[in-house]
Design a protein that fits this description.
Blueprint (H helix, E strand, L loop, with lengths): L1 H18 L6 H25 L3 E10 L16 E3 L16 E11 L5 E4 L1 H4 L4 E5 L5 E10 L4 E5 L21 E6 L7 E12 L10 E4 L11 E4 L4 E9 L9 E5 H14 L5 E2 L2 E5 L2 H6 L8 E6 L4 H5 L6 E5 L2 E2 L3 H9 L6 E8 L2 E8 L1 E2 L2 H4 L9 E3 L4 E5 L2 H7 L7 E6 L4 H5 L6 E5 L2 E2 L3 H14 L1 E8 L2 E8 L2
Antiparallel strand pairs: 1-3, 1-5, 2-12, 3-4, 4-7, 5-6, 6-7, 8-9, 8-11, 9-10, 10-13, 11-12, 12-13, 14-21, 15-16, 16-17, 17-18, 17-19, 19-20, 22-23, 23-24, 24-25, 25-26, 25-27, 27-28
């Protein structure tokens, strides 16, 4: 509680400063203790209200025998890690037959008959799941459904009249709001920490497929995974999922899945045991200033269509590469991640409306949403492993027949990037060896001389845009050019 009181004092002083109140006046001295007590009591009441609905989850999975010794599954593989990695402990020496890998996480009870919301990575593929309640009772849980793309799971224990937590409306969340994280960090049951909402709508973190994270500075650590992030009213507004860390512990940056997103996934899991998501059938990317300028745009909003899948809903509706999707069902699209989330929430078969920027004009399209499946997505093929362009730092050549066949290209389509110099413009644009340059500023190229002509014309406009193919994926890159 000392940490809470320190934060409260800081909050009151900050409020006084912003309000222009004299910090040493007799009225302020009289009011401050009352304000502090009210805030202190609010935190206490939230903790007392939500903590009984928070559970400790232990999962175990049998591993095959191995002669490789190990002590701890490495926690730091990426600065953004899910909390329970640190608890995947391994016995010293070779693994015996039937060795169990164990994980530790948290969850929150959302129905009095035993449904529990948690993270998919806490329980997925587990052979046994043990749930410990606040009253020290222990139950074996079964998995109702998991969704790795959102990292949400629902499990069930055979119990009645359990305390539950209420899900709040995360769309109303504002940066700066007070929040509390409750869970089992390092196995310390039902630990409560406090902080604020640092940001909302965090995407491109690289943790899961569908990202729209709440960022918080509430202290959360390995073992908090799946536990609730709650507001000052005691409503669950997020499910704690990952931390940014270089030490394996708290560094002031944590991420939670918004409650509204978790609730939608939970409803599908409870109903069908799985999640069905919408699909357009396009490869999209974010805009940057250079790309926007090359398409005649003055801002970087929207999602750029780099590729349209053959036979997809997008192709049938008339969507083309180089279209910029500005709105989806009337809602502005800020970037590729937001469009992906909006489409993913649609049910397959639903009809949606797209507003697209094409050739300097906006055009509306109606599209019947498809279903996101592994077959529909396909599997990108890694790129296969001339003439030198010193300014761009590129060495290019005609695409060899074997590489063209592997990448699904027609004969004479594009030029192959054979080498990229580390300090050239091509490197700064993100080009790699093995990329195939298909277009320069919207014009097809089939030889190094075509590419040279395209670069010369691009200099006249002071910006160059390339359409490239990397494996089977097509993307755009752009940059100013002198």
């Amino acid at each position: 509680m000392l940490n809470v009181r320190i934060r409260a004092i800081f909050l009151v002083l900050s409020m006084a400063i912003f309000a222009g109140l004299p910090l040493v006046s007799h009225s302020a001295e009289a009011q401050a203790p009352s304000v502090l007590k009210q805030l202190d009591e609010a935190f206490v009441q939230v903790a007392e209200k939500v903590t009984p609905a928070v559970v400790n989850i232990r999962s175990s999975k049998k591993e095959a025998a191995s002669g490789v010794p190990g002590e701890l599954d490495p926690f730091f593989k990426h600065p953004f890690r899910d909390f329970d990695d640190l608890f995947k402990r391994f016995k010293k020496g070779p693994k015996p037959e039937g060795f169990k890998q164990e994980g530790l996480g948290s969850g929150v009870i959302i129905s009095s008959d035993g449904h529990i919301l948690t993270n998919s990575h806490v329980v997925k593929d587990a052979d046994e799941i043990q749930v410990n309640l606040s009253d020290r009772r222990s139950f074996t849980a079964k998995v109702i459904g998991t969704d790795s793309e959102s990292d949400i799971a629902v499990i069930k224990i055979d119990a009645k009249d359990l305390p539950i937590a209420k899900l709040g409306d995360s769309s109303k969340l504002r940066v700066g709001e007070l929040v509390m994280a409750i869970g089992n960090p390092f196995g310390l049951n039902r630990t409560v920490t406090s902080g604020i909402v640092s940001a909302t709508g965090r995407t491109n973190v690289g943790i899961i497929d569908y990202e729209d994270f709440i960022q918080t500075d509430a202290a959360i650590n390995p073992g908090n995974s799946g536990g609730p992030l709650v507001n000052i009213s005691g409503e669950v507004i997020g499910i704690n999922t990952a931390i940014a860390t270089r030490s394996g512990g708290y560094q002031g940056i944590g991420f939670a899945i918004p409650s509204n997103s978790a609730n939608l996934i939970m409803e599908d899991l409870l109903k069908d045991g799985k999640v069905r998501r919408g699909l357009l059938g396009v490869n999209i990317q974010d805009m940057n200033e250079s790309l926007a300028k090359s398409f005649g745009r003055t801002d970087t909003k929207g999602a750029l269509v780099a590729q349209v899948v053959e036979g997809s809903p997008a192709e049938k509706a008339g969507i083309k590469p180089e279209d910029i999707i500005l709105k989806f069902n009337g809602q502005d699209v800020s970037g590729a991640a937001e469009l992906k989330n909006l489409v993913g929430r649609q049910k397959p078969g639903a009809t949606s409306k797209l507003t697209v920027w094409r050739n300097g004009k906006t055009v509306d399209f109606s599209i019947e949403i498809g279903e996101r499946t592994a077959k529909a997505l396909g599997t990108p093929v890694p790129p296969a492993a001339g003439e030198t362009f010193e300014e761009l730092g590129l060495e290019i050549e005609r695409v060899p027949a074997a590489a063209a066949e592997k990448m699904g290209l027609k004969e004479g389509q594009g030029v192959l990037v054979k080498d990229v110099k580390g300090d050239g413009l091509g490197s700064r644009m993100g080009l790699r060896s093995g990329d195939v340059i298909l277009e320069v500023d919207g014009k097809n190229i089939s030889s190094p001389s075509d590419f040279s002509d395209g670069v010369k014309k691009a200099r006249e406009h002071k910006v160059i845009r390339l359409k490239i193919q990397r494996g089977t994926a097509k993307i755009f890159v752009a940059s100013p050019i002198g």
